[in-house]
Amino acid sequence: MKVGKKRKEALAKYDNTKTYTLMEACKIVKEISSTKFDSSVDIDVRLGVDPRQANQMVRGVASLPHGLGKTVRVLVLCTPDKEAEAKEAGADHVGLDDYIEKISGGWTDIDIIIAVPSVMAKLGRLGKVLGPRNLMPNPKSGTVTLEVGKAVTEVKAGKIDFKVDKTGIIHTSIGKSSFDADKLSENATELIQVLHRLKPSAAKGTYFKSIYMSSTMSPSIIIDVKSIPGI
Q: What is the pTM of this model?
């Protein structure tokens, strides 16, 4: 496979076969990010779980101390008595039936949907649209709640929802390449510590099999799991 000029330059700055500490990886990912825009920094964690088993599913939320560095577009689907609370908290879109019709027509120009429990029955028919985009509200992620104002504030501040995929990998963003290395490290540490606390009792053997960090369009960096505090 042909390797582009920018990728060659990035690979020349570190050894992609070597394992680095979390802080080293955060510094390297900033150096090898070459996009003209402020690229996202992503982390991929391969877990020693079998997602096909219900008792080994890993899903949860983490509140990143320094946020994601981007504007999170929030839609709140609620009854009229909750609309003012949602708007005051900073929700970008608030309503119910009109937005359900828009989504039915294919509109998904949002990052998070928060819903009150009483409207969830109306969202059932939107599963084919919202499911593949991971937009369906879920009580486990805190996006089905009566405290819509609190939920909006949290996701705007950097609360992320993650779920292990069918291959046993957690993939999520932890910030932007413009972040200081310290901030990227603290965000990554928070996520991995949350994953550590969520380890299923049924999971046997090595739980953290591998951790990789990369930015948009950059090569990946292997992280030494032992370099992460609290693991």
A: 0.82
